[in-house]
Write a structure and sequence with these properties.
This protein has seven helices and 23 strands. It has 373 residues and is of the alpha+beta class.
Length: 373
């Protein structure tokens, strides 16, 4: 635990040479342009060429129906009454997902992910057939097809099976061709709107001030804690890309609320640099209750009447460590390092520290937000 806090202190105190402020960050790291975003796409398709690891047609009815529809579209006549006679083990129904990047043009490619829907055991060696990818509006934005790269295997019989990673999920690099792009109007109305990734009034004000210092007064205005409106200067009206490039490399002093984040599952504790404690006394002690069951044998003397029986024996031991009442004197406001040293002096484990932070927060002595994951 001491090493953990020492690491936090070393990170907080590392000198940042050549940087305006320890909290300075570029505009592109703090905010993003409104409307410039990714779009999720999804499609339903079939994977063929599997080595007997496809869906069971008796159980996966949707796979059987998809195979029948595909054959019908290709001119293969099958009596609908005999659709259940289709017996294929090398086909699997899959869902295809992709992320359409902003400004993507028709003809470019993007990566896709393929996931099995039925009871297929593996997609290794399979090929995805032509699958249209649609957006939330129902329009087709891309078409996917190609051999699947799984990076896993699954082999076995009735008695044993060997599997590595997840053989029912695969990827196709550049497996989708974009057919339609999403139009984005940069600089609509002569303005740009930046949305902060972490809303904060101080950060929004600092960002507007940095932009005004570079491009002139009234160039930027913080509308809310999460958005900054930027007016495009006259000299950049015909070249918005250069203006955005020059704007997004500006350094802005970022700010945020003081937070303590704890993860009870892993015992991880992360404290922000602005966390402050009021004067508080903390007592730390552990009570251990050890119960052990043992069994003895009761055997009668030779030639005596009786029988041998098992006699249970229970030992109970209570161990209570001496409690330590430690005064954390924080009247003058302290740094992260001083808080770490004070808590280390108690000798608590990470899980004990989580309980201590919760108690300090409940007492009103922790000035910041306590987040429990």
């Amino acid at each position: 635990m001491k090493f953990f806090f020492a690491l936090l202190i070393s990170i907080a105190l590392v000198p940042l040479s050549g940087v305006i402020s320890a909290d300075a960050a570029r505009v592109k790291d703090l905010a993003q342009l409104h409307g410039v975003r990714n779009n999720q796409l999804m499609g339903y398709g079939l994977v063929t060429g599997l080595n007997g690891t496809g869906d069971d047609m008796k159980k996966s009815v949707f796979t059987l129906q998809a195979v029948y529809n595909m054959m019908t579209r290709h001119g293969i006549t099958i009596d609908p009454a005999n659709i259940e006679d289709i017996k294929v083990k090398n086909v699997a129904a899959v869902m295809v997902t992709a992320t359409l990047p902003p400004f993507a043009k028709s003809g470019s490619t993007m990566d896709i992910q393929v996931s099995s829907m039925g009871d297929s055991k593996s997609l290794a060696g399979g090929t995805l057939l032509m699958t249209p990818l649609v957006g939330p509006d129902g329009n087709v934005y891309a078409v996917a097809q190609g051999p699947i790269s799984v990076g896993a295997f699954s082999f076995g019989g009735k008695a044993a099976q060997v599997q590595k990673n997840h053989p029912t999920v695969g990827n196709i690099a550049g497996g989708a061709i974009i057919e339609r792009s999403v139009s984005i109007d940069l600089g609509e109305g002569g303005n740009l709107l930046y949305q902060l990734r972490n809303a904060d009034f101080t950060t929004a004000a600092n960002m507007a001030e940095a932009i005004n210092s570079r491009f002139g007064e009234k160039s930027a205005f913080p509308e809310t804690s999460g958005s900054v409106k930027v007016a495009i200067p006259e000299q950049y009206k015909e070249n918005i890309v250069d203006f955005i490039a020059a704007l997004e490399v500006l350094n802005v002093e970022a700010d945020s609320t003081a937070k303590v984040v704890v993860n009870e599952r892993t015992g991880t504790i992360v404290m922000g640099k602005d966390v402050r404690l009021s004067t508080v006394a903390v007592s730390h002690g552990n009570l251990s209750l050890i119960i052990r069951d043992d069994f003895g044998v009761s055997q009668p003397n030779p030639l005596a009447e009786g029988e041998t029986v098992v006699v249970p024996r229970t030992d109970i031991k209570v161990v209570e460590e001496e409690g330590q009442l430690v005064l954390l004197d924080m009247n003058k406001g302290v740094s992260l390092g001083e808080i770490a040293n004070a808590l280390n002096a108690i000798g608590a484990t990470p899980r004990d520290l989580i309980a201590i932070f919760q108690a300090i927060k409940a007492s009103g002595s922790l000035h910041g937000e306590l987040i429990i994951l």
